[in-house]
Write a structure and sequence with these properties.
Largest sheet: 7 strands, parallel
CATH class of the largest domain: Alpha Beta
Number of helices: 22
Helix content: 25-40%
Bound molecules: adenosine-5'-diphosphate, magnesium ion
Radius of gyration: 29 Å
Distance between the termini: 28 Å
Low-confidence stretches: 475-479, 612-623, 671-677
Length: about 675
């Protein structure tokens, strides 16, 4: 089986270079990957109904005899229509196909077929247009539906899958050791793969699912545990001097209990024998920056260096400003390094890091670039870690000799889940907001009420407070300038004349962005019209209204992040969700946000509403992309898999027993490719 992961998808008949690109897009560059590309659903063909019972526009299966083979009946605007008839025993109904001469040879008069598709009613008479069909005698009970991409439909994927299954060697190498499989009542891999794609019965499908879910979670656990046990080694930097009390004195505020606790935990890690691997998870506004600063201070005071890496230039600059102000008047020297640092300055900064005269480096991934060397890098912090992959976070640690690692994330996921997903990290949770915050009030409105909402923003501006307005990007990766610029222009000339309105979008140069952000931060702008570039981390306490246009376009977690840009001071803040979406799912999302400001509850709901594919699959989280398991639904299996993985590694910590060699290979593959960034 392992070798099928080295067999390019082009080994399949009918898959050339061009198709291969499409298969790559659905995550299947190799035959092995294809076999692990599971259906997103199934069409149930096992319960055919008489056509008169069909509901309009609902796909259904109808078993019927062809009474007239479709033939070309009308040519119109270059379209050839094929019309035939079928009889389900109660009703004779028309079958319609377009531009499909093949159809007249595929459907035979007098034979029985199972037709699958939507039923349409014309003058109350039912008919089927371009239904799929199977000879009734050899019809499968269910049929897989695959996630398609442009140019690659589910049917083509199905055909490729059939071939891929034929390539499975007679005895596939099963990553799950046999005794484990037996003790957990799991079916063999070959059977599981066949049944997940082309189940012979519903029961077989369930068995296949259970086995593959277990396998996925088990391998994930094994790989995380291997990482956790193996990678640490000896700490290069034992920081025995606790300098944090001194640091708390530098702050303009009193740290929260949660901040103190997180720092205490990390300080204890950094004094220990092996390097720290810690995740600090805190809801938006919980004060993660101060925690990072405390630990950078701790490193500096122990004679070493620290680096803090942020995902955007904007954030890096903001962190730099924050840390510099905390450390001002002390002997701790902080530098900023980003992609737009001028050459000359850059040289001086690199020199100060290489000779150790700068103790703290704040920056973007520019910190990872070649030529950046540290004299004594002892602590690597990555902020908003979901934006970085595991690869980047270890690239930063590679700049030092076994340095400590801290990752900070504002993605609140349920604790049990976090422990399993970030199984290689220890966890601190900032479960307390700084005092004096008033929860943000959230309202969902329809676009008809936009005018009133803008009046609300105007009143706040007149009182000296500021607002954000988020405009959607037209398309992901698309030019977001147009919508922001247009929107801002309309505000200036029509809707809010007289107010100072700034714009921020992804196409601006870092320096321009920074200039605008700076003006907003110091109160020179009343309103900032922006795309989601302000989503992460930006901190302007005087901003009190967050208005989000087309709120239905965003996931719950993202909306929560956006909302987190306000409510950072003592003023009452508001989040206004503008949406005309009527669909159930969007309405529920808005309702959740209006009812709670607790990020953990939002995350739970996000999981529940979106399901695993989207929640975990989305690049938002930097979480492993699961192909089949649903972390929320399969929690019991997850625990099972976790226990089994722990037990197995207790017995054979490095997986060196012969019967575990294969498992080791698989786990490494899981660990290598699991995280998106
Ligand atoms: P996040 O966890 O979202 O990164 P930040 O670190 O940006 O949060 O902090 C949010 C705001 O709260 C900042 O303005 C910061 O100065 C302030 N803050 C942080 N800790 C405290 C505290 N203990 N007391 C009062 N304000 C605090
Ligand atoms: Mg932050």
């Amino acid at each position: 089986m392992a070798s099928l992961f080295q067999t390019p998808i082009t080994a399949l008949r009918g898959v050339g270079e061009k198709k291969a690109k499409l298969f790559e897009r659905i995550g299947a560059p190799t035959v092995g990957d294809l076999l692990y590309t599971f259906p997103r659903g199934y069409e149930d063909l096992s319960h055919p109904i008489p056509i008169r019972m069909a509901s309009p526009d609902q796909p259904c299966a109808v078993r019927a005899f062809v009474t007239r083979t479709p033939s070309a009946v009308r040519v119109h605007g270059g379209v050839t229509l094929y019309r035939g008839f079928a009889d389900d025993g109660e009703t004779v109904f028309p079958l319609t196909y377009f531009n499909n001469p093949y159809i007249s040879h595929a459907l035979h008069e007098g034979e029985e077929y199972l037709f699958y598709g939507k039923v349409t009613f014309l003058h109350l008479k039912p008919g089927m247009t371009t239904p799929e069909f199977f000879p009734a005698a050899s019809c499968p009970p269910v049929r897989p539906i695959y996630r398609q991409t442009e140019g690659l439909n589910s049917r083509t994927i199905q055909q490729a899958m059939k071939q891929a299954l034929l390539l499975l060697p007679e005895t596939v190498h099963d990553p799950l050791p046999e005794d484990l499989r037996e003790s957990h009542g799991l079916c063999p891999l070959r059977q599981a793969l066949e049944d997940i794609h082309f189940p012979s019965t519903m029961q077989a499908l369930e068995e296949a699912k259970r086995r593959l879910i277990f396998e996925e979670l088990f391998l994930l656990q094994i790989s995380l545990l291997l990482l956790k046990n193996g990678e640490r080694g000896e700490s290069g930097w034992r920081m025995t001097q606790d300098a944090t009390e001194e640091f708390w004195q530098l702050l303009p505020f009193t740290p929260t209990g949660a901040q103190r606790r997180a720092v205490r935990e990390a300080v204890a890690d950094m004094a220990g024998d092996s390097p720290m691997r810690r995740l600090v998870q805190g809801d938006v506004g919980s004060g993660k920056t101060a925690v990072a600063a405390a630990l950078c201070w701790q490193a500096a005071k122990n004679g070493a260096q620290a680096a803090l890496m942020a995902p955007t230039e904007l954030l890096a600059r903001q962190h730099f400003a924050t840390l510099s102000s905390f450390f001002s008047g002390t002997d701790v020297h902080t530098v900023l390094l980003t992609g737009s640092t001028p050459k000359k300055e850059r040289a001086a900064i690199l020199a100060s890091l290489a000779d150790g005269s700068a103790q703290v480096a704040v920056g973007t991934h520019a910190l990872l670039s070649e030529g950046v060397e540290f004299a004594r890098l002892a602590l690597a912090v990555t902020d908003e870690q979901h934006r970085f992959g595991v690869g980047q976070r270890s690239a930063l640690t590679a700049k030092g000799r076994s340095p400590h690692m801290l990752v900070m994330s504002a993605t609140p996921i349920p604790r049990t889940l976090a422990l399993m997903l970030y199984g290689d990290l220890d966890l601190s949770v900032l479960d307390e907001l700084p005092p004096g915050r008033t929860p943000v009030l959230t309202y969902a409105i329809s676009s008809e009420k936009r005018r009133r909402a803008l009046g609300f923003l105007r009143r706040h501006a007149q009182e000296g407070r500021q607002s954000y307005i988020i405009c959607p990007m037209i398309d992901e990766g698309d030019d977001d300038r147009a919508s922001v610029t247009e929107y801002a222009a309309r505000l200036r000339t029509e809707e809010l004349p007289g107010l100072r309105i700034g714009e921020l979008h992804g196409r601006m140069k870092p320096a321009e962005k920074e200039e605008v952000m700076g003006r907003f931060a110091c109160g020179d702008l009343d309103i900032l019209v922006s795309t989601t570039v302000v989503e992460v981390g930006v901190d302007v306490p005087n901003a009190v209204v967050m208005m989000i246009e087309n709120a239905e376009r965003y996931g719950l977690s993202q909306l929560h992040q956006l909302r987190g840009r306000v409510g950072r001071g003592s003023q009452q803040s508001y989040c206004i969700l503008v949406t005309d979406a009527q669909n159930q799912e969007a309405v529920s999302r808005m309702r959740v946000l209006c009812s709670t400001t607790d990020g953990f509850r939002v995350a739970d709901e996000d999981l529940r509403l979106r399901g695993p594919g989207d929640f975990f699959g989305s690049r938002q989280h930097g979480l492993p992309t699961l192909r089949i398991a649903d972390m929320a639904e399969d929690l019991a299996v997850l625990r099972d898999a976790q226990d089994a993985a722990a037990a197995l590694l207790r017995a054979d910590p490095t997986l060196s027993l012969p019967e575990h060699r294969r498992l080791r290979r698989y786990a490494q593959r899981t660990g290598g490719g699991q995280t998106s960034g």
